[in-house]
Amino acid sequence: MPEIKRIYQRSCINLLLIALFIFGNIWLNIQPALEAFHIQKTYESGLAVVFILGMVRIIDAGTGLNNIVIGTSTYWRFDFLSGVVLLAFRLPLTYYLIKNYGIIGSAFAELTAFALYNLIRFEFLRRKFGMQPFNQNNLKALLLGIISFGLVWVLIGQFSGWLGIILRSVIFSGLMILGTIQGKLTPDAAQLIVQFKNKWGIQ
Q1: What is the distance between the alpha carbons of residues 41 and 10, in angstroms, rounded to a whole number?
Q2: How many CB atoms lie within 10 A of CB 202?
Q3: Residue 134 and residue 8: Cα distance in Å, rounded?
Q4: In whole angstroms, what is the distance from residue 167 CA to residue 152 CA?
Q5: Minimal CB count within 10 Å: which of 41, 59, 147, 166?
Q6: Torsion sign over Cα 109, 132, 182, 18
């Protein structure tokens, strides 16, 4: 059980950092990329949908590998049951919101369904096994993502074209990587550094 708990907690922080890293890079550059590729402005109306779906991925990633933890336990039937609940809740909600709000309604349905789905799994693991994957590093990771995004947006958000896209991507990625390492947000970061140094003979 301690090993499963360790994997659960580590997957939570690692997947959260990866999701923030990917979404931050996408959201910083999606509009400039549309302009750089001369894509019709009508597609910009879909940016809100992209943002909401990005939140879905962050929530899903940030709650860790709860499906694997449940699926490999004696309560594996609950993994199937929670999936059925998700589908039963998601389909009518999606239909209703699309009918009333269009495509953005579909995105909100996805957000609501996955938030509920992961909340149910989180609470199940907490009650049955006394496991919950969050600690102060999860909050630090969220703050790192928000602050890094804000700094890049304020300092070079106005840069257009490919130069702006490259600068924003490099600086945001650098801030996220540096913050993860310096803040010791995940033990895996330190292990990767050691492996890198050993591979290249760096002392």
Answers
A1: 41
A2: 9
A3: 10
A4: 9
A5: 41
A6: negative
How many residues appear in the chain? 203
Q: What is the DSSP letter of 203?
A: -
Residue 133 token pair: 């994957």
172 neighbors 24 (Cβ within 8 angstroms): yes
Structure tokens at 164: 């702006």
Query: What ranges make up the beta strands (E) of 30-100?
Result: none
For the record, the structure tokens of 43 come out as: 């597609």
Ordered per-residue pLDDT tens for the chain, 203 residues = 678 888 899 999 999 999 999 999 999 999 999 888 887 777 777 899 999 999 999 999 999 889 888 988 888 899 888 889 889 999 999 999 999 999 999 999 999 999 999 999 999 999 999 898 999 999 999 999 999 999 999 999 888 889 999 999 999 999 999 999 999 999 888 787 777 667 666 66
Please give the full DSSP string across 88-149, using - where no structure is assigned: HHHHHHHHHHHHHHTHHHHHHHHHHHHHHHHHHHHHHHHHHH------HHHHHHHHHHHHHH
**What is the number of other CB atoms lying within 10 angstroms of the CB of residue 9?**
19
